[in-house]
Amino acid sequence: MLRRNLLLVLALAGFAVAGHAQQLQTFEKSTLVIETRAGPKHFDVELAVTPAQEEQGLMYREHLDPDAGMLFVFNDTAPRSFWMKNTLIPLDMLFIAANGRIVDIHERAVPLSEDLIPSQVPARAVLELNGGTVARLGIKIGDVVRYKSFGNAS
Fold first, then answer.
1. Does an H or E element contain 2, and which?
2. Which value, in Å, is the radius of gyration of the alpha carbons in the chain?
3. Distances from the Cα of 48 to the Cα of 6, 80, 128, 140, angstroms
4. Superfamily assignment of 27-150 in CATH?
5. So where are the chain's domains?
6. Each residue of 65-109: pLDDT tens digit?
7. Separation between Cα atoms, residue 47 and residue 30, nearest integer Å
8. Are 52 and 81 in contact (CB under 8 A)?
9. CA atoms within 13 A on the CB side of 45
10. What is the 3-state secondary structure (H, E, C) of the chain?
11. Per-residue CA distances from 123 to 12, 21, 86, 93, 100 (Å)
């Protein structure tokens, strides 16, 4: 009986994972540069542009390359809040003004947390990077993200 129940639980878990795999969004890829005091840092990013992509973000990922991230660019500048629901890896979140300047940073967001992570000031975009990237590269508020959406790409 115990073995049968265990097999049933495993089968249901498999269906749940397969269901997520069928619904997962795909993302366009691009590159951007963060101008830091120590020099430019290049990143390969995925772009969350549709509501479904924005909702999913980096959920269900078990790995993110050290020079990778996800960029969310919105149509307006406003207070932004993110959470880590179904996000398996710690993330650094950079809140970015319309001109590309980093206006707030939240480091090492806790995986799977449903606590809101609000920007302290209005932002036009959010860049999610691996947790610890901000500290490792010395990224600070005031540094500039160079990307076409901010009109400052090199």
1. helix 2-23
2. 17
3. 38, 15, 11, 23
4. Protein of unknown function DUF192 (2.60.120.1140)
5. 27-150
6. 999 999 999 999 999 999 999 999 999 999 999 999 999 999 999
7. 7
8. no
9. 25
10. CHHHHHHHHHHHHHHHHHHHHHHCCCCEEEEEEEEECCEEEEEEEEEECCHHHHHHCCCCCCCCCCCEEEEEEEEEEECCEECCCCCCCCEEEEEECCCCEEEEEEEEECCCCCCCEECCCCEEEEEEEECCHHHHHCCCCCCEEECHHHCCCC
11. 41, 31, 24, 12, 10
Coil, helix or strand for 116?
A: coil
pTM recorded for the entire structure: 0.85
Let me know: does 126 contact 70? Beta carbons within 8 Å: no
Sign of CA dihedral 98, 150, 47, 75: positive
Residues 6+ apart with CB under 8 A from 29: 44, 45, 46, 47
Can you tell me whether residue 126 is helix, strand or coil? strand
pLDDT at 16: 45
Q: How far is CA 65 from CA 33, 55, 57, 58, in A?
A: 16, 21, 15, 12
Is the CB of residue 126 less than 8 Å from the CB of residue 72? yes
The Cα 111–Cα 91 span in angstroms is: 8
